[in-house]
Amino acid sequence: MEPAPPAVRPDTTWPAAFPTRLSGDVARVLEAVPPDRYPANQSFTVDVRGELLAVPERFNADEPGPAALRALAPSGRLVLHCLYTRHGDGHVRQRHVEQIVTSDEPCVVPFVVRLVGEYVLEIVEAIGRGLPDLATPDSPQRRLYGEFIASNPAFVARTERRVVSYWSCYHRRRHPSFDTYPGGILLATLRACAEEQTGRRWPHHTPLTRSSRAN
Predict the structure, then answer these.
(1) Which of 17, 80, 86, 202 could cross-link with 59 by S-S, CB 3.0 to 4.6 Å?
(2) Predicted pLDDT at 36
């Protein structure tokens, strides 16, 4: 059996995943978390209000204890929760996304949207519960997500394709129509956010829904 790779600090990759104004919080969080046993070698790039962020696809460090979490400022705890939404364990991802999904901090949005494109249905459902105002016209939540979607069309298109792929592979028996699948519902709402933000129809890469066929 080959030995496990040595644990490494995530300091070299994670600072690029957050806006520079949060660099102090990121540094304090990285001091508080254990080393990452299997550091990610891939990332996704997004535009958050004009700043390009590169978010690692995975993070596999153990979670820090309650005392370490309490020692962080609220902004630091937000960074930590974002970081652990990229954990390799789906239960960990769900616990932490539930802590940030209601936040109005713009840098949270890519972490939430990325999870819409994952296969764990419970995570997708948790996101839907945490964004109750996403479908409310001109709500702050709708504007926040609409702005992000409008700025990141390629990232959103990849997310849509992931949602369709996982629905078809794992969830089609329970949700025969993409219209009723929680991920499909979220994508339709996110497109509506972008349309409200931009004033134009937004392209989509999902099966046509009943409403789409009607139009």
Answers:
(1) 86
(2) 85
